[in-house]
Write a structure and sequence with these properties.
By secondary structure, this protein is an alpha/beta fold. The protein has 4 helices and 14 strands.
């Protein structure tokens, strides 16, 4: 199951109460106050951790609460502070305050973290109130309550390359050939129901992450089809690989399909229209592939690749073209 949006309530721990206590030892007259402070409550921290690719692990509970601090005690013993509650999320998770709508933190890189709810401070024991004019204070303070906040998590996958195209264009098949990812593959459209990530190895010390986005259709930016739910996942991709089917089963024109997907990307986010793009005609073993590639090349004014994920034709050239974009040679 894939989950890329989630709303939670997080509650930090309360601080422990301060203690009112006096030394009562034989041969120690007027021992004075010795009540210790309370410990601090635990905070709720969100940490980006490499290896996770969706938010499903946090969906088991809607309310996450950190432990409270311990109360202080006599002999100037401070109560133990509670450990922070760490919720691990995938890199690329944006943390919003659900009620106010502002962004708390965009956790882009592994290791980045944000305190979503801060733990309450521990109360002061009566030893803290001792002074030359108040040698026997009988006052202590209670611990502060922890913060309570509703947060919304929105995941935008971190990928170097995003695969886009209409349903059944061959995105999942290509990803499975270039990486170890195993998305569902079938001979009908809308097989892919959520994004998949795969690592493509270029050579010994270079690799990149490729994301397969569910097929887009006309009106996707406004909510049509499946792809609209996942368009945001290609917003972080530095490079788009646009796959075009040469002979669609529905009889549509490959060039018109290319224009449709380009229009949907631009209407969803104008910056996507400016993103670097490599265009490739899939299923190169079909007789219509060469003509489709020629027409597309005339349309966009640059070469168009022809590939076949089944036979392997053109895959090495495609990976090399992607690598050249991601790691341009020094001038």
């Amino acid at each position: 199951m894939f989950l890329d949006e989630l709303e939670l309530c997080v509650e930090a721990g309360r601080g422990g109460n301060g203690c009112v206590s006096f030394r009562r030892e034989k041969y120690v007259p007027r021992g004075g106050p010795d009540g210790g402070d309370g410990g601090d409550g635990g905070s709720v921290v969100l940490l980006a951790e490499e290896g996770a690719d969706n938010l499903i692990a946090l969906a088991q509970k809607k309310h996450w609460k950190a432990e409270s601090g311990r109360n202080g005690s006599g002999a100037n013993r401070k109560g133990a502070s509670a450990a922070d509650l760490v919720l691990r999320v995938p890199p690329g998770t944006i943390v919003f305050d659900a009620e106010q709508g502002f962004v708390l933190k965009d956790l882009v890189r592994p290791g980045e973290q944000v305190v979503a709810a801060r733990g309450g401070k521990g109360g002061k024991g009566n030893a803290a109130f001792k002074s030359p004019t108040n040698r026997a204070p009988r006052e202590a303070t209670e611990g502060e309550p922890g913060e309570v906040r509703r947060i919304r998590l929105e995941l935008k996958l971190i990928a170097d390359v995003g695969l886009v195209g209409k349903p059944n264009a061959g995105k999942s098949t290509l990803l499975s050939r270039l990486s170890r990812a195993r998305p569902e593959i079938a001979a009908y459209p809308f097989t892919t129901k959520h994004p998949h990530l795969g690592r493509v190895q270029v050579d010994f010390d270079r690799s990149f992450i490729m994301a397969d986005i569910p097929g887009l259709i006309e009106g996707a930016h406004a909510g049509a089809g499946l792809g609209h739910e996942f368009l945001r996942h290609i917003q972080r991709a530095g490079l788009l690989v646009h796959l075009v089917e040469p002979a669609p089963l529905d009889g549509t024109d490959p060039l018109a399909n290319y224009r449709t997907i380009r229009a949907e990307l631009e209407q969803f986010d104008p910056q996507l229209g400016q993103r670097h793009e490599i265009v490739a005609v899939t299923k190169a073993d079909l007789p219509e592939a060469a003509e489709a590639a020629r027409r597309l090349s005339e349309e966009i004014g640059r070469p168009v690749a022809t590939i076949s994920a089944v036979t392997g034709q053109g895959l090495n050239h495609l990976v090399a073209a992607v690598a050249a974009r991601l790691w341009p040679p020094p001038e």
